[in-house]
Design a protein that fits this description.
two-stranded antiparallel sheet; 2 strands; Arc Repressor Mutant, subunit A
Length: 95
């Protein structure tokens, strides 16, 4: 499931949500994962650079925690993000 505050976060792009979903698929309940950008790029049909940019934005907004660099990088999903609340929705009664 995609957290509301993730897909509604104006700081993120649609590709970022797609990459987050791919990370969730790869994680399948594991705490930390270490997929390569190349593997993720193939999974989501994006360039490695686009995947790298998405991971950078996801980390900047707190939805992904990165440790290490390069081949020693691990990622952990943080569905709560940096705590920025999802924008409120206004419901309209029709009728």
């Amino acid at each position: 499931m995609i957290p509301d505050r993730l897909w509604m976060d104006a700081r993120l792009h649609a590709a970022d949500v797609h990459v987050w979903c791919a990370l969730a698929y790869v994680a399948r309940g594991r705490e930390a994962i270490d997929p390569t950008n190349a593997a993720l790029a193939k999974l989501v049909n994006l360039s490695e650079r686009s995947v790298s940019d998405s991971i950078t934005r996801l980390a900047a907004t707190g939805f992904v925690a990165r440790t290490g660099k390069g081949r020693n990088r691990t990622l952990a999903l943080r569905p709560e993000g940096d705590g920025t609340p999802a924008p409120g929705l206004v419901l309209k009664v029709v009728g």
